[in-house]
DNA sequence: TTGTGTTTTATTGCCTCC
DNA sequence: GGAGGCAATAAAACACAA
């Protein structure tokens, strides 16, 4: 380590020591500071000091206030300002430097606490959004199931009462596929089959939007992606998984190379996390809001 | 008064920059 | 290599309950 002489030495370039003590000559409690040059080594006061080292003293309120104001304007201390402050406050430059150093440390700690609180708040909001999405997903699934059953029933009744009527081959195939899926409780595939019907029958505007979107994109395979999990994940795991795998690919805007959309544009559902390339390390964006 | 927790002042060792 | 910054830490000063 570079040799630093302390007891306030070393700041002004020379090897100086300083001691602070109460001004007992006039009985006041104010501090004044005395410096000892090397040539003072024979001095009685210095000798006294060596044998009765002073305890550290707190700065006075007005000194602290002055330093605080100075810190507000600039939290780093250039040598000129340090000398200036030391003169104005009757302190050693070294004390000023130490005060600024400690003050910066306190500021940093506070800042970390603030950042932590912000992160905590954002996490809570994300979690709430996630839970809402789960709920909405459940609602939509039951609605699709309900409508599918209705449709099947309708078609069955129609089929028995009108067995002689002619159907196009594609209509027949569609009915068969749907019946298969529903018998196998494969709701996801059933939704592919009935999606066109759902558009016309759904009472949910959101559902209509979604199914129309499906038709436009020609792919509904992501609609029930959550269902593809093995069910062994707990809620926290699903929440984490969502960051890497969007709940529904078509519902969320396509994200490429960290080009994030505005939150409002995706109804605050986009969570700011993405994995843009299988071979690349996942990168996580973050929007505090 | 005293024990205890918190805050402030100061030191130490390491690191970076010039 | 010196100057100065930072993290970790010591220790004095302070606050406060019992």
Please provide a written account of the structure.
By secondary structure, the chain is mainly alpha-helical. Helices cover 53% and strands 6% of the residues. It has a domain at 61-157: Homeodomain-like (Arc Repressor Mutant, subunit A, Orthogonal Bundle). It has helices at 44-51, 61-73, 79-89, 93-161, 169-183, 187-201, 205-217, 235-244, and strands spanning 17-22, 31-36, 273-274, 283-284. Strand 3 (273-274) and strand 4 (283-284) form a beta hairpin. Helix 4 packs across helix 5 (169-183). The chain is rod-shaped. It binds a DNA duplex (18 and 18 nucleotides) through residues 1-4, 6-8, 10, 55-59, 64, 76-77, 79, 94-95, 97-99, 101-102, 104-106, 108.
What are the SSEs and their pairings?
Elements: E1 17-22, E2 31-36, H1 44-51, H2 61-73, H3 79-89, H4 93-161, H5 169-183, H6 187-201, H7 205-217, H8 235-244, E3 273-274, E4 283-284
Antiparallel strand pairs: 1-2, 3-4
The protein binds a DNA duplex (18 and 18 nucleotides) through helix 4.
Protein name: Homeobox-leucine zipper protein
Biased composition (Low complexity): 161-172
Subcellular location: Nucleus
Mean pLDDT, nearest integer?
A: 60
Largest sheet strand order: 1-2
Q: Which H/E pattern describes the elements?
A: EEHHHHHHHHEE
Q: Class of the domain at 61-157 in CATH?
A: Mainly Alpha
- Within CATH, the superfamily of the domain at 61-157 carries the name Homeodomain-like
The radius of gyration computed from the alpha-carbon positions, rounded to a whole number of angstroms, is 37 Å
What is the general shape? rod-shaped
Q: Biggest sheet: strands, sense, closure?
A: 2 strands, antiparallel
Biased composition (Low complexity): 161-172
Protein name: Homeobox-leucine zipper protein
Keywords: Coiled coil, DNA-binding, Homeobox, Nucleus, Transcription, Transcription regulation
GO molecular function: DNA-binding transcription factor activity, RNA polymerase II-specific; identical protein binding; sequence-specific DNA binding
